[in-house]
Amino acid sequence: MIEATIYKALGDPIRLEIVKRLSITSTSTIGDISTDLGISRQGARKQLQVLVNANVVHLMQKGRQTHVILDTKTLQIASSFISQLERQWDNRLEALKDFVEESNSD
Protein backbone atom coordinates (compact mmCIF):
# COMPACT_ATOMS: atom_id res chain seq x y z
CA MET A 1 0.00 0.00 0.00
CA ILE A 2 1.68 3.17 -1.20
CA GLU A 3 -0.13 5.32 1.39
CA ALA A 4 1.63 3.45 4.23
CA THR A 5 5.02 4.23 2.69
CA ILE A 6 4.10 7.89 2.29
CA TYR A 7 2.76 8.26 5.83
CA LYS A 8 5.77 6.42 7.27
CA ALA A 9 8.03 8.88 5.46
CA LEU A 10 6.02 11.83 6.78
CA GLY A 11 5.95 10.38 10.31
CA ASP A 12 9.23 11.99 11.34
CA PRO A 13 9.12 15.64 12.51
CA ILE A 14 12.21 16.61 10.53
CA ARG A 15 10.93 15.05 7.32
CA LEU A 16 7.53 16.63 7.87
CA GLU A 17 9.22 20.02 8.31
CA ILE A 18 11.14 19.49 5.06
CA VAL A 19 7.87 18.81 3.23
CA LYS A 20 6.23 21.86 4.83
CA ARG A 21 9.09 24.08 3.67
CA LEU A 22 9.06 22.59 0.18
CA SER A 23 5.32 23.14 -0.06
CA ILE A 24 6.06 26.86 0.23
CA THR A 25 9.17 27.07 -1.91
CA SER A 26 8.56 23.95 -4.13
CA THR A 27 12.32 23.46 -4.45
CA SER A 28 15.37 23.89 -2.26
CA THR A 29 18.93 22.67 -2.01
CA ILE A 30 20.21 20.14 0.48
CA GLY A 31 22.49 22.84 1.87
CA ASP A 32 19.59 25.23 2.42
CA ILE A 33 17.54 22.51 4.10
CA SER A 34 20.37 21.53 6.43
CA THR A 35 21.01 25.19 7.32
CA ASP A 36 17.33 26.03 7.83
CA LEU A 37 16.72 23.00 10.04
CA GLY A 38 20.03 23.23 11.90
CA ILE A 39 21.12 19.72 10.98
CA SER A 40 24.20 18.43 9.19
CA ARG A 41 24.20 17.91 5.44
CA GLN A 42 24.65 14.21 6.09
CA GLY A 43 21.64 14.25 8.42
CA ALA A 44 19.60 16.10 5.80
CA ARG A 45 20.62 13.59 3.13
CA LYS A 46 19.60 10.71 5.39
CA GLN A 47 16.15 12.23 5.97
CA LEU A 48 15.76 13.10 2.29
CA GLN A 49 16.58 9.54 1.23
CA VAL A 50 13.53 8.32 3.14
CA LEU A 51 11.39 10.91 1.33
CA VAL A 52 12.95 9.95 -2.01
CA ASN A 53 12.21 6.27 -1.40
CA ALA A 54 8.56 7.17 -0.77
CA ASN A 55 8.50 9.37 -3.90
CA VAL A 56 7.58 12.39 -1.81
CA VAL A 57 10.56 14.33 -3.15
CA HIS A 58 12.99 14.00 -6.03
CA LEU A 59 16.61 15.05 -6.16
CA MET A 60 18.06 16.86 -9.15
CA GLN A 61 21.73 17.62 -9.59
CA LYS A 62 22.39 21.14 -10.95
CA GLY A 63 26.08 21.89 -11.08
CA ARG A 64 27.54 21.37 -7.65
CA GLN A 65 24.21 21.61 -5.85
CA THR A 66 21.54 18.99 -5.34
CA HIS A 67 18.05 20.44 -5.55
CA VAL A 68 15.14 18.86 -3.72
CA ILE A 69 11.79 18.98 -5.49
CA LEU A 70 8.46 18.17 -3.88
CA ASP A 71 6.32 15.61 -5.76
CA THR A 72 2.78 16.90 -5.37
CA LYS A 73 1.31 13.86 -7.14
CA THR A 74 2.46 11.63 -4.30
CA LEU A 75 0.99 14.01 -1.74
CA GLN A 76 -2.31 13.93 -3.65
CA ILE A 77 -2.39 10.14 -3.19
CA ALA A 78 -2.01 10.65 0.56
CA SER A 79 -4.64 13.38 0.54
CA SER A 80 -7.09 11.20 -1.41
CA PHE A 81 -6.71 8.46 1.20
CA ILE A 82 -7.55 10.90 4.02
CA SER A 83 -10.48 12.31 2.03
CA GLN A 84 -11.84 8.79 1.58
CA LEU A 85 -11.68 8.24 5.35
CA GLU A 86 -13.38 11.59 5.97
CA ARG A 87 -16.27 10.66 3.65
CA GLN A 88 -16.70 7.32 5.42
CA TRP A 89 -16.80 9.01 8.83
CA ASP A 90 -19.17 11.70 7.58
CA ASN A 91 -21.52 8.96 6.36
CA ARG A 92 -21.29 7.13 9.68
CA LEU A 93 -21.95 10.31 11.66
CA GLU A 94 -24.89 11.16 9.42
CA ALA A 95 -26.34 7.67 9.97
CA LEU A 96 -25.85 8.05 13.73
CA LYS A 97 -27.51 11.48 13.67
CA ASP A 98 -30.49 10.05 11.75
CA PHE A 99 -30.73 7.17 14.22
CA VAL A 100 -30.69 9.49 17.26
CA GLU A 101 -33.24 11.86 15.73
CA GLU A 102 -35.47 8.96 14.78
CA SER A 103 -35.16 7.48 18.29
CA ASN A 104 -36.06 10.83 19.91
CA SER A 105 -39.13 11.30 17.71
CA ASP A 106 -40.72 8.07 18.99
TrEMBL record:
InterPro entries: ArsR-like_HTH, HTH_ArsR_DNA-bd_dom, WH-like_DNA-bd_sf, WH_DNA-bd_sf. Pfam families: HTH_20. Transmembrane segments: none annotated. GO terms for molecular function: DNA-binding transcription factor activity. It comes from Arenicella xantha. Residues 1-92 form the HTH arsR-type domain. This is ArsR family transcriptional regulator. The lineage of its organism: Bacteria, Pseudomonadati, Pseudomonadota, Gammaproteobacteria, Arenicellales. SMART domains: HTH_ARSR. Signal peptide: none annotated.
